[in-house]
């Protein structure tokens, strides 16, 4: 039945191109090398790449840990790194070495996928976390390219959607050479779709070490701020407006202010920092804050100097989450205060930044639950509860220090996924090589 799916995608091509043009008005990266989306490339063809697909920013950062370890075990490895988003591609530039290639993963059209595989001839394909495409999986299997879902996760909602399209999803998952799940719950959901789960390895993101220099700079800026700093990390559309409404009520509530007298020093209180998840929304969030009567100081204007005073700081830069977590005493978890599934809290924990999260963390269920059990995160009902909870924690230095220590311990306790994944990749490459020699 894949031909119905393929026919639908073929008919959708004009719309897909139009969507790229629309997105490109806000993020010019989407207008780069558009023909790669259709399997047409300007770089010369090659063979023998280790291919890693990291669709967006978070997957690319997880892939960085794996790529670094694979290079150590596979001297002379040539990397083919593919993406689906402009932020992922920009982040992926940091991973490239001479001989490596970066490209868009083509849309899942049979012709485009065939041209992609013929052009690059990968030895193995590693899809990070969730990206499984029916025509891609079928084509890799037909060509003898082992295609793996690494650091794999699947939420209950995604499972329900996949079951609704079982005629399409089941053959795609069955075509994979292996699946290495983050958690046993993920493994069970993936098995329900016919995926060949061969191990539960944990989450690669636990193995990431925060960059020391940005983290240290953030901590120095926090000390210079002279008051507690609370960040809304990776906030999503709709959440900032809710936060600003809560902050207005919070600041006007005399009783709340009295109950938080420990954080008040004269007219100073908590410094709020908002870091939107999507860069195309930076200007929108700044305008929204100003419309609500908040003065705004943007990271893009700071340079190397500490942040300028303002009601709100806006983190309008990419690749600096380590700096922002260092700058913050506490972080609110974006995507968890609206039914969006939450963002990953592992980087915050590794940076020693305790997290306050809302009720919606279904994209990272186990990590959120384990963090809560370890005392590295606190769950609240909504932003109205999160704002005073964060302010109180940030202002209570002994309590904040204890929570930060628990966050670091939590991150360290769950490392090891990268070693298990690398061993499994080497095993598959060895098996594929032996099969080829036969």
What does this molecule look like?
The protein is of the alpha/beta class. The protein has 2 domains: 197 residues, Rossmann fold, CATH 3.40.50; 202 residues, Glycogen Phosphorylase B (Rossmann fold, 3-Layer(aba) Sandwich), CATH 3.40.50.2000. Helix content is 48%, strand content 14%. It is built from 19 helices and 14 strands. The strands form 2 sheets. A 7-stranded parallel β-sheet has the order 3-2-1-4-5-6-7, sandwiched between helices. Strand 4, helix 6 and strand 5 form a beta-alpha-beta unit. Helix 5 packs across helix 6. The longest helix is centred in the C-terminal third of the chain and has 21 residues. It starts with a helix and ends with a helix. 44% of the residues are buried. Pathway: Bacterial outer membrane biogenesis; LPS core biosynthesis. InterPro entries: Glycos_transf_N, Glycos_transf_N_sf, Kdotransferase. It catalyses: lipid IVA (E. coli) + CMP-3-deoxy-beta-D-manno-octulosonate = alpha-Kdo-(2->6)-lipid IVA (E. coli) + CMP + H(+). This is 3-deoxy-D-manno-octulosonic acid transferase.
Q: What's the SSE blueprint?
A:
Layout lengths: L1 H10 L1 H14 L23 E4 L3 H17 L5 E5 L2 H7 L8 E4 L5 H11 L3 E5 L5 H10 L3 E6 L3 H9 L1 H9 L3 E4 L2 H8 L5 E4 L11 H14 L3 E7 L3 H14 L1 H6 L11 E6 L5 H10 L4 E3 L13 E3 L6 H7 L2 E4 L12 H5 L4 E3 L7 H10 L2 E3 L3 H13 L1 H17 L3 H21 L1
Parallel strand pairs: 1-2, 1-4, 2-3, 4-5, 5-6, 6-7, 8-9, 8-12, 9-11, 10-11, 12-13, 13-14
Pfam family, one: Glycos_transf_N
Protein name: 3-deoxy-D-manno-octulosonic acid transferase
Function: Involved in lipopolysaccharide (LPS) biosynthesis. Catalyzes the transfer of 3-deoxy-D-manno-octulosonate (Kdo) residue(s) from CMP-Kdo to lipid IV(A), the tetraacyldisaccharide-1,4'-bisphosphate precursor of lipid A.
């Amino acid at each position: 039945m894949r031909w119905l799916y393929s026919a639908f995608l073929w008919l959708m091509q004009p719309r897909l191109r139009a969507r790229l043009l629309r997105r490109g008005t806000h993020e010019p990266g989407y207008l780069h090398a558009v023909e790669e989306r259709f399997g047409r490339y300007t770089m010369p063809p090659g063979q023998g790449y280790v291919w890693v697909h990291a669709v967006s920013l978070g997957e690319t950062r997880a892939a960085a840990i794996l790529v670094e370890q694979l290079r150590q075990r596979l001297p002379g490895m040539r990397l083919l790194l593919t993406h689906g988003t402009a932020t992922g591609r920009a982040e992926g530039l940091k991973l490239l070495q001479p001989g490596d290639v970066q490209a868009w993963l083509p849309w899942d059209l049979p012709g485009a996928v065939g041209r992609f595989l013929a052009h690059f001839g990968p030895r193995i394909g590693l899809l990070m976390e969730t990206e499984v495409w029916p025509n891609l999986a079928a084509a890799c299997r037909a060509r003898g390219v082992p295609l793996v879902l690494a650091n794999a996760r699947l939420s209950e909602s995604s499972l329900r959607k996949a079951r609704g399209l079982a005629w399409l999803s089941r053959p795609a998952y069955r075509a994979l050479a292996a699946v290495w799940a983050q958690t046993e719950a993920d493994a069970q959901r993936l098995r329900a779709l016919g995926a060949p789960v061969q191990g539960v390895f944990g989450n690669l993101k636990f193995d990431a070490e925060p960059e020391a220099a940005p983290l240290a700079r953030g901590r120095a800026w926090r000390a210079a701020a002279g008051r507690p700093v609370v960040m809304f990390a990776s906030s999503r559309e709709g959440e900032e407006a809710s936060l600003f409404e809560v902050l207005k009520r919070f600041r006007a509530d005399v009783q709340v202010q009295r109950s938080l007298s420990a954080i008040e020093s004269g007219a100073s209180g908590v410094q709020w920092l908002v870091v939107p998840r999507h860069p195309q929304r930076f200007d929108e969030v700044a305008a929204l804050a100003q419309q609500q009567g908040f003065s705004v100081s943007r990271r893009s204007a700071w340079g190397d100097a500490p942040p300028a005073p303002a009601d709100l700081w806006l983190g309008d830069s990419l690749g600096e989450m380590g700096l922002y977590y260092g700058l913050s005493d506490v972080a609110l978890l974006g995507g968890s205060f609206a039914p969006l599934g939450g963002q990953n809290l592992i980087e915050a924990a590794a940076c020693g930044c305790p997290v306050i999260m809302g009720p919606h963390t279904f994209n990272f269920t186990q990590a959120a639950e384990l963090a809560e059990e370890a005392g590295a995160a606190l769950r609240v009902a909504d932003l109205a509860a999160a704002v005073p909870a964060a302010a109180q924690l940030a202002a209570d230095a002994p309590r904040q220090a204890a929570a930060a220590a628990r966050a670091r311990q939590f991150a360290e306790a769950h490392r090891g996924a990268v070693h298990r994944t690398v061993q499994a990749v080497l095993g598959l490459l060895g098996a594929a090589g032996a099969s080829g020699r036969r």
